[in-house]
Design a protein that fits this description.
The chain is built from three helices and six strands; from the N terminus they run αβββαβαββ. The chain is an alpha+beta fold. The chain has a two-stranded antiparallel sheet with strand order 1-3. Strands 2-4 form a two-stranded parallel ribbon. It has a two-stranded antiparallel ribbon with strand order 5-6. The structure holds zinc ion (2 copies).
């Protein structure tokens, strides 16, 4: 029964919100969802980002699938300790990643 529910959600979001149908990876018991190349994804199955969120899963703090999928990403405008441009991508209004934005 639960599987049917998930499939219905996947189909609904897949059709209704095309831009929200990015694939993430999560196991049934896992509380986090991951990108495909995350070492923590383990035996995860693919599902849409929307389905993972519906299932109450949160973004992995290591692979940061949310940052991965955001449409309007830009390179962080902050500088690292050695004076070079930060290589992190961000979608924040400030144009800075979580490390450089003012809390
Ligand atoms: Zn991960
Ligand atoms: Zn940065």
């Amino acid at each position: 029964m639960k599987k049917i529910f998930v499939i219905a959600i996947v189909l609904f979001f897949g059709l209704a919100v095309k831009g929200f149908s990015q694939t993430v990876y999560a196991s049934d018991k896992g509380e986090k969802y991951h990108t495909a190349d995350c070492k923590l994804s383990g035996d995860a199955k693919d599902m849409t980002l929307a389905a993972a969120k519906k299932a109450g899963k949160g973004a992995c703090g290591i692979c940061k699938p949310d940052e991965h999928f955001k449409d309007k990403v830009a390179q962080c405008s902050g500088k690292t300790a050695d004076g070079t441009r930060c290589k992190r991508m961000t979608s924040s209004k400030e144009g800075k990643c979580y490390q450089h934005k003012s809390a």
